[in-house]
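Sorry to interrupt, but I need a hand with the structure work. Could you write out one complete protein record for me, on any chain you like? Just paste the record in under my message, thanks.

. . .
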Amino acid sequence: MGGPYRNSRGPGTPGRQSPVAVRPEGPGCAGTTPPAEALSTAPEMSYPAPRFGDVSKRWSADDVWALAPDTPSRKAAAKVARPASWPVRCMRPTDGGGGPGGTEVLWGECAGSGAQPYLAAVHLSAPDSPAYRCSCPSRKFPCKHALALLHLWAEHQVDEAAEAPEWVADWLAQRSAAAERRDTAADPKASTRRAQRREERIADGLAELELWLRDQVETGLAGARDFGYGRWDAMAARLVDAQAGRVADRVRDLSTATAAPDWPGRLLAEYALLRLLTTAYRHRDNLPAPLRATVRARVGLASAPEESVHDTWDVLGRHDFPAGQVRGRRFWLRGRGTGRTAMLVSFAPRGRTPESPVRVGTAVDAEVAFHPAEWRAAVVARHAEHHGGPPAAETVDEALEAWAGALAADPWLEAWPVVLGGAVIGRDGGWWLGEPSGAALPLHADSSPPWRLAAACGGEPATVAGEWTPRGLRPLTVWACGDRPVALA
């Protein structure tokens, strides 16, 4: 990078991977009574795809399109998101004003190629909302009809109705009953026995992994590039059998390390981190409680939230990532009053979109429950949401100091949130993001060249939030002209 910037690299372990309502034509809002066969074959699309929570503001069109599982689904939904395609399109408000825009449920009938319309509904006010129901045969969640109905609602092109038709009421009753069943406490003794058996299986799998790692090092690294996927996948499959899924993902990712220019160092570093994890798990009972919780989380053992914190949380950014056979999504939050960092994580099978409990660039007045490790948290109560402007920035040195502290608590840490103010892009051998003092952070390879960031900044200094990783900074959100957030992910 030319000019005054000095290189600042993190202390991480090298080589780690880390809107006017329209009266519908035809039947009234209660809709016609659908044939029984239409409902009997309707798939239950109640898997909670991305949700934005219990906020007072109605979603925008961009919020709706963010729910699409893929680009083809969005394009297909746009074609049917026309009032002419929906002779019935209605909404029922919530009693207490909860739900986005004060809406409890949407429903509608979309004309299709057959004699009977497709019946679609979206539940917006439940804790796991939005949830979807449609009589179409699509296996994508949400389907194009649910997306189109949401888009019409976002554009204020659905009518308000006091009562929902019978098929919608029945679906809501089923969802309520299912939620009650989920809340029923399980047998604690049986749960304890299952947990003990799983920990034993994980221990056996990690012991086998430790022997495998020793073999890899004793054999040498020279031939690692010739292994293909078979050697990694075989060990990963054994770990899956041992119910150590997160460790299996790390082993499977070893194949990508051999494609890097500095692959020997990266591969050896990954081996070392895996060995550290197996050793830590073997001695977990002797570890301090915070580190023991981290080790348990890193091998894939779930934990319940332990501490709730009420604050106004700036939503710094979002990053989607592959996680084995599923898709993952994480949001970074930072409390204005407490200064605490929170990470919201969700997963979904392929073809579905991970849930989005918050919106990037907003400030959320909420109660957040923290898990005992990884800064992982969940929003348990939301009171208000507004556009908060750029979050408080930090210097490069402060960001790296925070990373070092987080890495000391969790040696397997893959990313940490960073907010730089007055940041500009530069180039010196690689791409960098610098601050007014002259300090700069190198950009991650998957963010280089940073054309989207450059376009959003318009050549001017801006506030940029991103993830610092052992392989560089991944910009996620930029606040430029007018302090409007632009999500880069």
Summary: The radius of gyration is 25 Å. Confidence is low (pLDDT under 50) at residues 1-55. The first strand starts at residue 6 and ends at 7. The chain has four domains: 6-13+394-487, 36-183, 188-299, 307-387.
